[in-house]
Amino acid sequence: MEFKQYRSCCGMSGKGCCKKQDHKLNTYDWLCDVPDAEKATDFIEVQFKNTRKGYYLNSSKLSLVKGDVVAVEASPGHDIGTVTLTGKLVTLQMKKNNVRVPEEAEAKKVYRLAKPTDIEKYNEAKAKEDATMIRSRQIAAELGLNMKIGDVEYQGDGNKAIFYYIADERVDFRQLIKVLAENFRVRIEMKQIGARQEAGRIGGIGPCGRELCCSKWMTSFVSVATGAARYQDISMNPQKLAGQCAKLKCCLNYEVDAYVEAQKRLPSREVVLETKDNSYYHFKTDIFKREITYSTDKSFAANLVTIPANRAFDIINMNKKGNKPVALEADAKPQPPKRDAMDILGQDSVTRFDSSTPKKKKKKNKNKSPESKENGEAPSTTLAPPIKVKQRPQKPQKEGESVEEGKENGNGKSKKAPLNRGNRPKRRPDDKSGKELNNNKPKTKNAPSSPDQES
């Protein structure tokens, strides 16, 4: 990263302060518009690489604003940083970060605004940081040290280098400092950091899909305990509770205060509810619904019963008076009938417009007559009334004609005499063909039965 000497927009406009937020470590200057707030103190806040900050005395009364690149006092030599805060708010930030306000003789001072030669030398020193870090890791591995060097920061003039490392145990790096000083010809300073700070320097994406909080906006890291997960009834799975730094996630502390306040309005988890049948122990609590689940066994889930918090308070008061309810649950209220998933919209079927749905097959009628099969008529389930057959009017008989049945007419067809209802044809009991026997038919001798026989 290269520094560019510039004056911020606030400095160009002539104002003495700026509310610009261009970095996660910038502090919002809410005292910017307050009169005489800039003249309250001569200390300024200067930020260096990553999260390192320092407070320096502007003894030369330089007109400095947020965003200026300055050369400040270091041991030895000087360092290059960026002004991030000026005015009265600097003293408030020093108290917040537990930094003692030094006397003017002991305080480190601001030398000047950075010159082009200062920035050029600074960029040359920064260009060597990656190669130095890789080489220092190799040296630490050769010496058999159980440590990991995560970052290297060169001072602005290139006379000093700070090595940031993480280690689980105490490390004796005296031999390491000698070897590093011989290889890089600079003054060596070792600084131990935590796993959360290293994750903030590296960056990444969290399981929530957003950029890591430690690399986006967090500046101070508070210890996280497993009690925060217990208050929120989160599963005690180490893989889900740990972040990319292999420590407990910092976001476990975000809502724990709200859960603790809500827990105060619920009955204690240590209280045992007594009924005439059993003793019920606390199993789990739904803070949002204010519902508590109790179990008849203290060690595992058995006969779980869920009741509201008001009902639990009532039973506790009854137990204090020496009374025991019949059951843990109160009288159950009649619940409204559940609607079917297919009838959510009050309709018969959701797929009524779907043309791909198979149509219902019509049931076959076993009583269908053979005549209706031939004609393709639909079967009828009800008995149809008898069909009245219109008889043709008979022609007047001429003299000499006989009225015998079975005699041929002019078309070669024989006419049958109409049947009377009182004289119906009888069916032979052993005849399976279904043909009827007409007993009322007059017997004629040598009467032809068909036109073929007559011919």
Tell me briefly what this model is.
This protein is of the alpha+beta class. The protein has 13 helices and 12 strands. A hairpin with a 5-residue loop joins β6 (148-154) and β7 (160-166).
Structure description:
The strands form three sheets. The protein has a five-stranded antiparallel sheet. The protein starts with 8 loop residues before the first helix and ends with a helix. With 455 residues, the protein is α+β, with helices and mostly antiparallel strands. Helix 4 crosses helix 5 (174-184). It has helices spanning 9-12, 89-96, 116-126, 129-142, 174-184, 195-202, 213-216, 227-231, 238-241, 256-263, 309-320, 370-375, 451-454, and strands spanning 43-47, 53-57, 69-73, 78-85, 110-113, 148-154, 160-166, 187-192, 273-274, 279-286, 291-295, 305-308. Helices cover 22% and strands 15% of the residues. The chain is elongated. It has 13 helices and twelve strands. Among the domains are: 9-114, no CATH class; 128-193, GMP Synthetase, Chain A, domain 3, CATH 3.30.300.20; 200-263, no CATH class; 273-320, no CATH class.
Number of helices: 13
Distance between the termini: 126 Å
Find the structural class using helix and strand composition.
alpha+beta
Q: Tell me about the largest β-sheet.
A: 5 strands, antiparallel
Q: What is the percentage of strand-forming residues? A: 5-15%
Helix percent band? 10-25%
Give the tally of β-strands.
12
Give me the Rg, rounded. 51 Å
Order of helices and strands: HEEEEHEHHEEHEHHHHHEEEEHHH
Low-confidence stretches: 4-9, 11-15, 372-378, 401-415, 434-455
Shape: elongated
| Integer average pLDDT | 75
Spatial order of the strands forming the largest sheet: 2-1-4-3-5
